[in-house]
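Researcher: Hi, I'm a grad student and pretty new to this. My advisor asked me to get structures for two proteins we've been looking at. I'm not sure of the right format, so I'll just paste the first sequence and hope you can take it from there.
Model: That works fine. Here's the first sequence with its structure tokens right after it:
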Amino acid sequence: MSQANTIAILNEQLAAANAALEEALANGGDTAVARYQIGLIEAEIAAAVRSQREKQADAERAEQAAIDAATAELTTKTHSITVDAAAVPGLAELAGELTEVQEDPEIAWAAREVAKARAALEFAESDYHPYAEKASNFGARLAEKRAASDEIRKRRLAGDERDTDAADMAMLAADVESLTELHNGALSAAAAQDGRQAARATLAQAESLLEGRRKRLAFEAARNRLAEAERVYLAAWNNATEAGRAIGKHSPWLEFPASNEMRRAVTGSVVGMRGL
């Protein structure tokens, strides 16, 4: 028996004990037994309420711990994907130690929203399940009764008629009518309890926010890597310029012309150079 049912029963018992006390007071009878019973029941109710609150607190703590763990995992995964997306093969060997991609508090916040939305969807699924199962069971029973009725009709059309057919058909018709009403009621109750669509919409929005923030951070990280690559390029260019001048070549841009890809990149007209 659930804690809520236990409290409900105790409240009914308390109401009966209070009624007995009122009757004893009205009739001038002994109130000791009624008062004793009231005291016992009130103590049981208080204990049941405390137990209910403790279980609720434990459940909330467990849920929060699960969300915290999911948030940490998703934050770490998203950050790792961002770092990998901004990686430039060979840059670390040329530039030395690269600037670390810092963890973004906004990603942690967005990851928590996703974790909360996923937990809410799981709750919506589990909350909806018993209603859906009840409707499904009624639907299955209704289908069985209709099939049984159809079998009798088919048999009779084939010439196999029995004395019990009329009574059986009447009973099946009554069952179909009752089950149809129960099935429709169960479907309505399930639909009223179904919060999955709203939960999925909330999750989709949270995941979109997280992905949007990840993309922004990936751009910032890639931009930093580009700046570091630029410093390496300029250092190499300066070295080549000095070395060229030492042998009388004073126009390094003629000796080391930029590639078409570099020109396009510098002028901002290049798109999608990855893989070149």
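Researcher: Oh nice, that was easy. Here's the second one.
Model: And its structure:
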Amino acid sequence: MKRKFIFLYGFFAFFLFSCGIQKKIVKASGDVVEQSVQQFWNNYQKQLPDFKAIQIKSKLNANINKKNINVTLKLYIEKDKKIWLNASMLGITGARALISPAGVKAYEILDRTYIDEDLSYLNEQFNVDFFDYEKVQQLLLGQAPLLASLHNYEFTANEASGEYELSYKKNKALKNSNKKGEYIHSFLFDTNYRLRVIKIQDTQNQTEIIANYSEWQNLQGMNLPSVVKILINSQKPGAIELDYNNFTFEEMQAPFKIPSGYSKREVK
């Protein structure tokens, strides 16, 4: 059986990094406030992190195709430009990837194989059609990847649960329609407007993606997730947990070059 690139499902990679800011969990505070959907969205936008570049040290625990994966990861994001990923075990690099608006490139050292594809490759891996560079970046940073314009969402302020919810207005109609390219989806937020849960379901292709951001931290005045849990229910099931434990807000060299002698992996 051929090995799978671990970053096909999570696009995460890391080296050990000696310095940075250690995480400190910050619980949500305050009460749910009634407001318009536009007011809510403005408040949500205000709390998003503003940075040029960020390095994150993490651990990845995943179960992909009934295989357990535990690696040390380093992720480097140059905002809106590129995501550089490196996976290692015992300090030895095993795989590296580069995602940009132009596409995704990756290679795996053990198999001496690589991929070089446009971003439709990511959608094929998840059996969806909405992933672009921005949404991959949002998924990693705990930000809501809206699949439609804001006026297409219903907003609820739930005082009992202490949550805000954005839900797609067509959700009920889509339960039985099986319309291609349309997704049942919703987002939950805490009282500080930080994303808690993403739920996206494609009834036609029987694909469901659930992302959970149960813990948050505030570093240099910026909200960033502490733990990212992603569940993929589809023909290619997977479960991923990222534990972000060290952050550095500075630029770095992010070398990426597919080594000579590697074979291109067939895309299926």
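Researcher: Is there anything I should tell my advisor about the second?
Model: You could mention this: The chain has five helices and 15 strands.
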